[in-house]
Every structure is written in C-alpha cells, then in structure tokens.
Design a protein that fits this description.
The protein is an alpha/beta fold and 355 residues long. Helices cover 48% and strands 17% of the residues. A 5-stranded parallel β-sheet has the order 2-3-1-6-7, sandwiched between helices. The protein has a 5-stranded parallel β-sheet with strand order 9-8-10-11-12, sandwiched between helices. The chain has a two-stranded antiparallel ribbon with strand order 4-5. Strand 10, helix 11 and strand 11 form a beta-alpha-beta unit.
Length: 355
C-alpha cells in the first residue's frame, strides 16, 4: 500500500538533497517515488497567474496573497493525489511549518489542507546548525537576515514541535530525520517497517578522535543488520566546537534534541562504552529510555566495574560488542528478533480510508 508523507524543514536544511538521494535509492530497488515541493510550486503558480513572487522577496508579500497562492497549489496536489498514490509507492509533500523572517515567526502552512490530506506519516528534517548557517548565508534571500546560531536553533525547534503536534492531533507516526544521515535510514523506515528503531547512546566527549569514532562506526555498521539506527552524531557534534560556541542556549537545544526527539521516536536505546569512562549524558539517556518504558541495553567492556547508575536503568547488560552480536545472531537464527511496536500500530490503523 502506498504511503503519503508530509515533511517539514527550516530553510537551508538540505532536505531536498536528502530526498533526491532517497528517490535514487528507491528507484534502484524498483520503487516509485513522487515528491511535491510546495515552495517551488508556489513560485511557478504565481508566475503563471501574474503575481510578482521572487525567491528573494516572497516573504515580503501580504500574508493573504501568499495564502491564496498556497491554497491553489494545495488544491492541485489534492486533485492529483488519488492518481499519484496509485502510481507510486510513496508520495512526499514538502512544506515549511514556519519561517523566521525579520525577527518574527511567520506561519507557512494551511491547517485546512494539512488536515484534509490525511498523511500516513509526518517527518521533520533537521540539520547541523553550522551547515544551515553556511547555506543561509550563501542564499540571497537569507543573507541579509544574519541569523544567529541561537535563532536558527530556535527556528528549528519550533518547526519540529509544530510538525509533531500535527502528527499527534492526527494520531499519525512522526519522526525527526537528520539530513546528514544516509538515505538508507528513511528507506528502511518506509519499506522495512518491521525493523526496530534504536538510538545509540555513547560517551561522545571521550571518543572524538578519529580512532575512537572508527570504533563506534564499526559497531553501528554491524548493528545495521538488525536495526534501523538513529545516531546523534548525524546532527550536531558540539563536542568539536570551540568553547565560545557552546553557549547555554545551544547546549539546552542539544539535550532536548537527543532526549525528547531522537529517543522518543525509537523502540530501544543501546548504550555503547568502548572503554570505561564517566558519562552523565549516557546515564540520563538510559534513564529516559527506562522511565518511558523503552528497552535499554548496555554494552560495556568485559571485566570492568560498572556504575550502579548504569545497570539500574538497563534491561540487559552485554560485556562487549561480541556478546551483543552473538545474542542478536542467535535471535536472528530463531526468527525471534525484536519487532517495531510502532509498525504494529501502523498495521492496525492501515484500513482507515484517506479522505
């Protein structure tokens, strides 16, 4: 059955590039994909009807005019959807929730159409704040706004929370997708929904050198056989930033991102310690998983003493990656690997007709 997905992102988040790679991967696997870029369609429609919209100054137009053009585009999409959903395996509608323009949050969505389209899933694409800043300064439209890191992060936060609220009201699935992640992440989420989604917790501060990162990379690569993996390194790596950049506002956003976006959307948290170190961050991530009734697994070096605050919040403890991989291999052979609980919920509601 084809899926309809509404995606949001703030400007400069490289969502378009990510979905282009996704489309290429999907087509290589025999899947058909349709992507509606609402912003581009609005510019094309305005030109067609003689309304003077330009990419640089469109947000200066009266809200009523922008709303009228956007409604016309959504009417077109709504009219085409029945045919496109029959032709394609997945249809994306790319919109914005808000713009941060002239120090004001400007609404960029139409509640009527978001409700009427009745998507199967909502996605919010997020990117590294430094990459977003670099991209916005490159664009003529945004260069003059001179947004600070704090403003970009706040804009990103509002965009994600707005999209999450739509999903919650419609009782639909919602995920935050890092734009720097491999497109395989989203491909497996859509076309292999039975796979569990996990979050990898790790003491990043202690493993920022290339050798440490390679150890973590190899561990994650082996786990990909069994899980869809969300890696916090694929958004910001603030541990690599200059101390002057790590303001309280920035660090608050990072904690919120990991604890209440990424962990919230997974089935399980796996905490990996390549070597014994102290990590308040990992302890808090295990606690968050534990207290929200998710499975929390701990992978810790063999023979090393563990803090009781680690084991208290862990459902299972594995003494090193080999022990975990052996366990998963045995489960795989017995066809007893964990299944995604969200996938089961989706199947229950799949018979509901789209309006």
């Amino acid at each position: 059955m084809s899926k309809l997905i509404i995606t949001t992102a703030i400007s400069g988040s490289r969502r378009k590039e990510y979905l282009q790679k996704f489309e290429e991967r999907a087509k290589a696997s025999g899947k058909k994909v349709k992507i509606y870029h609402v912003g581009q369609m609005m510019l094309e429609h305005s030109n067609h009807i003689g309304v003077n919209f330009t990419p640089e100054n469109v947000l200066n137009a009266p809200p009523s005019v922008i709303g009228a053009v956007r409604s016309a585009v959504f009417e077109r999409i709504a009219g085409e959807l029945p045919k496109e959903l029959k032709k394609n395996d997945v249809v994306f509608i790319n919109i914005h929730a808000f713009f941060y323009w002239k120090n004001v949050f400007v609404r960029a969505w139409d509640n009527y159409y978001v409700s009427q389209l009745n998507p199967d899933m909502f996605l919010a694409f997020v990117d590294d704040v430094i990459g977003i800043d670099r991209e916005l300064r490159r664009r003529k439209q945004w260069k003059k706004e001179k947004l600070t890191y704090n403003e970009i992060l706040l804009w990103r936060n509002v965009d994600v929370e707005m999209t999450a609220s739509w999903a919650e009201m419609k009782r639909k699935l919602f995920y935050v997708i890092p734009s720097q992640s491999n497109e395989k992440l989203l491909y497996r989420m859509i076309f292999e929904p039975h796979l569990e989604k996990i979050y990898i917790a790790m003491p990043l501060t202690h493993f920022m050198n290339p050798a440490g990162q390679k150890i973590v990379d190899n561990f994650i690569k082996k786990l990909e056989k069994y899980f869809v993996i969300f890696d916090p390194r694929e958004v910001e790596m603030v541990e690599q930033w200059k101390p002057s950049m790590r303001t309280e506002e920035v660090l608050n956003q990072i904690v919120n991102r990991d604890m209440y976006w990424l962990i919230k959307q997974v089935d399980r948290v796996i905490a990996y310690f390549p070597k014994p170190v102290l990590s308040p961050g990992v302890i808090n991530e295990l606690r968050e998983a534990h207290e929200t009734n998710k499975e929390a697994w701990l992978v810790y070096p063999k023979g090393e003493t563990m803090s009781p605050f680690l084991t208290y919040y862990s459902n299972m403890v594995f003494r090193g990656p080999d022990q975990l991989l052996k366990f998963l291999g045995e489960k795989d052979q017995a066809h007893d690997l964990p299944k995604s609980r969200k996938s089961a919920k989706t199947k229950k509601g799949s018979s509901k007709k789209r309006k």
